[in-house]
Amino acid sequence: MPDIRLTSVTKTYGDKSRAVDDLTVTFASGEFICLLGPSGCGKTTTLRMIAGLEMPDSGEISVGDKIFFSSQSGQFLRPEKRELGLMFQSYALWPHMSVEQNIVFGLDMKHMPAAKKAERFAELAKLLHLEGLGGRFPRELSGGQQQRVALARMLAVSSNLLLLDEPLSNLDASLRLEMRAELKRLHHALGCTVIFVTHDQLEAMTMATSITVMNNGRIEQQGAPMDVYRRPASRFVAKFVGSPPMNMFKAGELPLLSGEVARTLGISAAGMETFGIRPEAIRLSADCDSAVLRARVDTIQPTGADWIVGLVFGNRQLFALTSEMPPRDIGAHVGIALKADGVHAFDKTGVAVERVS
Known about the structure:
Shape: globular
Radius of gyration: 24 Å
Order of helices and strands: EEEHEEEEHHHHEHEHEEHHEHEEEEEEE
Strand content: 25-35%
Number of helices: 10
Low-confidence stretches: none
Largest sheet: 6 strands, mixed
Structural class: alpha+beta
CATH superfamily of the largest domain: P-loop containing nucleotide triphosphate hydrolases
CATH architecture of the largest domain: 3-Layer(aba) Sandwich
Strand order of the largest sheet: 7-8-9-3-10-11
Helix content: 25-40%
Distance between the termini: 41 Å
Mean pLDDT: 91
CATH class of the largest domain: Alpha Beta
């Protein structure tokens, strides 16, 4: 599968707001790409324009040498000619059709011979662990099984480029975990290109080989999941990616903390407009006397494997994430130390300030 390229793509809706604003991006072949961002950032519109369900106002969309859309030449390739698989939040299985009939529905539209359809169904049933379910109807399946059927139906007509728009949002937590693993397994087994739309940063971090963070119709950052997490390019990315979210402060708001952040980053405090500290970058100590920074424990939230500790520093609250039992109880004071790799500074435009050391 060749690379997918969007060049200066713009999409404006009736109220003149730009859902996608002069978007230029390349999605590499064979990657599991997550389009990540809040509601209204343009990620679903981008996916639908690649699928051919939305017409861009301007720009060009191409896959290798094949032009999907070009405002300059007037080309528009119809969705059914794009040879891709598409799956939405709603699985839209035909309730009156069996599992097998649902899966081979697209092959029926292509008038594939019965023997070939049966062979393809058997391949997909084995791949997605649906053996023995071919005669059942959707109402007789669990949520996870229904999703596997929808995936199989998509793969029946295309296994090279798969477009998925928040397909896990209707599942409960345990099924989401199971299906994230299933999708990663499928991607590894097929070597296909996947573009997956989500607002859930945990889904993006756990599944993607490449994350594209979108905001207001534009791309804020594109890169490997841990690169995006560890080296956020902007204040927006730093705050959006991570749970609990990054603690954000204005420079000078808390002078002692601002000075410690500048020292940790090896930069001048004058270079910071705002700074952020990942919760897991805050180390807590029972020893307050020798610590440069100290705060009062306000809340303790156990999550099972970790503790989220709410701290009051000056007149502001911040959150720490620790895998060890908090050293003091609520109301007591603790010492604070900062891990350099979880501390970030941003200039007045919201762009990350480079570290000196």
